[in-house]
Structure formats: structure tokens, C-alpha cells
Amino acid sequence: MAKIGVFYGSTTANTVMVVTTLNSELARAGFEVESHNIAGGDIKSMESYDLLVLATPTWTEGELQEDWKKALHQLGSLDFTGKRVALVGLGDQVNYPDHFVDAIAELAEYVYLGGGQIVGQWPVEGYKFNKSAAVEDGRFVGLVLDQNNERELTAERIRDWAGMLQEEFAGY
Ligand SMILES: Cc1cc2nc3c(=O)[nH]c(=O)nc-3n(C[C@H](O)[C@H](O)[C@H](O)COP(=O)(O)O)c2cc1C
């Protein structure tokens, strides 16, 4: 069974809840899932997975969640060569429409710099925002969830995205 390492940071627990649901969906899709809250400082173990999910909310007008910020120096030294990495971003499109889920763009940069491949890009349709650093070639670089305004859509979005990852992670 292919193994996925899920790494997340969360300040007010929305990402914790989302990751719990995501882990169940990925398990249902046939993956073995190991989940790590990066507040524990466990970044180096990313290197032991070929398949990764990295999840962060955006805070402070476009910035990474605080535990991710503390881990950046380690993240910058990781080798992502040969790894497939999928991103999950939480944000608030009503109150932060000019910085909606910006933080996953920053994680994507580190993955690219480390030689990894990003998978699981997600359509921008269905969201209302002005600007987001997380849009690349007309799609979000990862799954986008808005627990503040569209909580009722989260379960279905996660289910659809887990189905996408089943294909993108196939063969590993
Ligand atoms: C002070 C503050 C700043 C925020 N800044 C942003 C932002 O720039 N962009 C965005 O999309 N969401 C922003 N948010 C919304 C959070 O990303 C959202 O509440 C998220 O679900 C929090 O996840 P967590 O509970 O896992 O920390 C902000 C929220 C607060 C309270």
C-alpha cells in the first residue's frame, strides 16, 4: 500500500479538522496515511516519503502559518527530488480577498526549489476573490478550503480532491 506523509500547521484548529477528514478520505482511497503536526518540529521526516501532502492556512495578510514559518530554514534544505507533493490551503475569501490562500504559493516555491513535483492543482471556479498568489496558470497550486465562509462545501471538495490524488499518486 502506498504511504502518504501529511504535514500540517494550524493556529486555530481549522486545518487540524480538515486534515482529519482528508486522512480518512485518503485511507478510503487505499493509502496508508501518516499525519504530522509540524508544531512538533518534525520536518526532516518528510524525506522518508515519496508522496506528501502539505497543509497550511494563510495568516497575517498573505503569510504562512506560524509553525511553518519556524520550520522554513529546515524546509529550504530538504531534497524533494522524485517526490510528488500535493498542497492544501485554508483561507478566508470574504475578509482577505486580496491575499486569498497566498501561503500555499510559498510552500510550492520550496517544493520547486527542492526539485519536487506539485500535483493536485485545483480549479479557481466556485471561489470569489480578487487576488491570490496561489494561482498558477489559471489554477490553484493545491486544494483550497474556506472554513470561514464555505464550510458546507469542504467535505465534497476533499472527497473530489482525494479522488484526483488517487490518480496522480498512482504507480508509487
Ligand atoms: C488575523 C487573521 C489573518 C488572516 N489572514 C488571511 C489571509 O491573508 N488570507 C486568507 O486567505 N485567510 C486569512 N485568514 C483566515 C485563516 O486562514 C482561516 O481562518 C483559517 O481557516 C485558519 O486556519 P487554522 O485554524 O488552521 O489556523 C486570516 C485570519 C485571521 C484571524
Quick take:
The protein has 4 helices and 10 strands; from the N terminus they run βαβββαβαβββββα.
CATH class: Alpha Beta
- Globally, the shape reads globular
Please, what is the CATH homologous superfamily?
Flavodoxin domain
Note poorly predicted spans.
none
- Mean pLDDT, to the nearest integer, reads 97
Give the SSE layout:
Elements: E1 3-8, H1 14-28, E2 32-37, E3 51-59, E4 63-64, H2 66-75, E5 84-90, H3 103-113, E6 117-119, E7 122-123, E8 135-136, E9 139-140, E10 143-145, H4 154-168
Parallel strand pairs: 1-2, 1-3, 3-5, 5-6, 5-10
Antiparallel strand pairs: 3-4, 7-9, 8-9
Helix pairs in contact: 1-4
The chain binds flavin mononucleotide.
Residues 10-15, 57-62, 65, 90-92, 96, 99-101, 147-148 line the site of flavin mononucleotide.
Verbal overview:
This protein is α/β, with parallel strands linked by helices. About 30% of the residues lie in helices and about 25% in strands. The N and C termini lie close together (about 10 Å). The model has no long low-confidence stretch (mean pLDDT about 95). Bound molecules: flavin mononucleotide (FMN). The site of flavin mononucleotide has 22 residues, from helix 1 and strand 3.
